[in-house]
Amino acid sequence: MAAQPPEGWDGWPEQKHFALVLTHDVESQRGLERCIPLAQLEMELGFRSSFNFLLKKYSTPDDLRSYLRKNGFEVGIHGCYHDGKKFSSRETFLERAGIINRYFKEWDACGFRAPAMQCNLEWIGDLDIEYDLSTFDTDPFETQDGGARTIYPFIVQRTSGRGSFVELPYTLPQDSTLFVMLGEKDIDIWKQKLDWVAQKGGMVLVNVHPDYIKFGEGKAGLEEYPIQYYEQLLNYIKETYEGQFYHALPREIANYVIGKKDLVAVSPHETA
Question: What is the pTM of this model?
Answer without folding.
Answer: 0.93
